[in-house]
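Proteins fold reproducibly. Take a sample protein:
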Amino acid sequence: MRLPRRAALGLLPLLLLLPPAPEAAKKPTPCHRCRGLVDKFNQGMVDTAKKNFGGGNTAWEEKTLSKYESSEIRLLEILEGLCESSDFECNQMLEAQEEHLEAWWLQLKSEYPDLFEWFCVKTLKVCCSPGTYGPDCLACQGGSQRPCSGNGHCSGDGSRQGDGSCRCHMGYQGPLCTDCMDGYFSSLRNETHSICTACDESCKTCSGLTNRDCGECEVGWVLDEGACVECDSSCVGCTGEGPGNCKECISGYAREHGQCADVDECSLAEKACVRKHENCYNTPGSYVCVCPDGFEETEDACVPPAEAEATEGESPTQLPSREDL
């Protein structure tokens, strides 16, 4: 039923609040759909292999099986199980390409045993072979055999999309993913392989696994006697291990007897906790203010139990009666 114009206009604000439709980029690509159909077809071949045979006359079974193996009956069983009835795109693609699948099954399977390569790459031209990309299926950076030197993902690999550039795995960088990032060092490199291994946590750059192999120390670490050592937690920069080698102290600490020590804010002349009856407890680098057990906490004070009960027991001031006025 068509809505009256006034009612339809009233729905406009609601329509504007509806979430946007999913982006087209999230829709499966033709290559993805083709690969999915091939995967289901291959699974169908597995499911129908030696179907309804086993346990009888072996010679008869082998003779009969050889006929069933490449028969139209088996093809029909595979095709019937490819798509769920609710999968519109799968059924649409199957209907459009059924003759191709039948031709491969009955005539071309022995010559082109890889259905994906024949169907998706060479016939429909919606995919590329692994290690290639783009409309013309060009080799990825680093070659189609080991794209990105095996240390990254080639943009568009196996599809008719992308630009063939490398997105390197963690620890690797460079156009071919053969160089090591900061925090990693080259543990193996030759004409075909490059392997980057993580440095010790103390190193920003390194040439080996230990804290003595650092080229530069990470922030919060310092080179001391040939090794990167961690600054004390009380330091802002340091020249060595321990609180006595701090360049500066962090907030809540002060230099005392040559090293950074915790400041006891609760013992200072100026009170850290200013509410009445409030207790002060020192913590490393800071302090906390807490009311004693049983005291009621208010914005301005910690109220003792007796005072709190008395306050609660007081009756509110009564307004004068009409007669008194």
In short: Confidence is low (pLDDT under 50) at residues 1-17, 21-25, 55-61.
